[in-house]
Amino acid sequence: MKDIANLRTSLAELDDLLVTCMRCGMCQSVCPVFKDSMLEGDVARGKLALIDSLAKRMIDSPVEVKDRLEKCLLCGSCEANCPSGVKITDIFIKARAILTGYIGLSPMKKAIFRRTLVHPRLFSGLLSMGSKFQGIMTSQADPFLGTSCSKIMSPLIGDRHFMPLAKRPFRKDYSGMDTGKGTANIRVAFYPGCVVDKMLPQVGHAVIKVLEHHGCGIYLPKNQGCCGIPTLASGDEESFLKLLKHNLKPFSSGNYDVLVTPCATCTSTIKKLWPKMAAKISPEAEKKAERIANRTMDISEFLVKHFDVDLAAQAGKGTTKTVTWHDPCHLKKSIGVSEEPRAILKGLPGYEFVEMNEADTCCGNGGSFNLAHYDTSSRIGGRKRENILATGADVVTTGCPACMMQMTDMLSQGHDHVAVKHVIELYADAL
Ligand code: SF4
Ligand code: SF4
Q: What is the Cα–Cα distance from 179 to 128, expressed in whole angstroms?
């Protein structure tokens, strides 16, 4: 542990951000974790009060303080509902980094982040190997959703139903792709993100099909790394900055017009966190990250803004199935994208769109939150499942692979006959 004087200095940097909180409690009504526990300590106001008195509390019980701060999905619902504009997510992320700097990273996270994730080739190689041997440790959970479960690993992963690793990662087929400007005279850089690459390659294939259909040139640089959010959410700034430096290289070059991703969390991280964090590397890195952030778009936002989503004329034609939509927090609350995917879904031939109750309520995944607080995560996810089932939809769509994993787990546990798809998969199928 570092000394307490350093801790006090670091916490003083948060004072300007904390002072804007009026303790009004408006964040309480929208917090999914508070709705589950009804504990003030779980809501943003309670956590901000905790941070306010952190230096003193840290001396008494540092691990308890860290645990309470980490009992948060970083969903941004509180920030979106805060009348004072408190930068709650920034504060939580900074506080976690300060705490991790003081307490240190757990040996498990050190091994995953600092020895594996920051080395993209090694990370990909290990997961490729894992995909070959996963059958030894896992068994099929639900054939309709294609999920697995694992009794042997249950002390580590609980009773989760999860999507297996892809036999062939998406980037294996497309890494290094560079097709110039295309007939639409637009060059699109593509950042699939880790989950699409390693677990949902069909989403990456759908993006390629859609971009090619619309005549876009595609630039998919080799050796892309994780966007870094799992490391930053755990307070590991060191690993985040390493990954950021790594990713700045391929995405600062390439002379592309737009960078698209099918992952709401990656999009939000690139747009909002890369520039802020790059400032810690150098002014040049900050400029590069800003240029990348300004050109980054969610795939459905890109489609609707740049092209006529040309399916509308056939909307509902020959309707045989119903489809609903879940708003990922990092898409709607973080970057304000919610109408675009709905516009795509409403124009799909063969589908009728049904709006889900509480469509923009968090699914409860929250990345590492799901690993550390699976019980709470599943109760929040269970409510999402009920809302999905109440629509009677055949397919639930979303725009974030993490939400897809969570909804798949919940629906698989209930052996519900509802398919979980990325919106781009249905759009690609309809072309
Ligand atoms: S809504 Fe904003 S100002 Fe009100 S208590 Fe929550 S963080 Fe503070
Ligand atoms: S980010 Fe989400 S889970 Fe965390 S305090 Fe805010 S509303 Fe609650």
A: 27
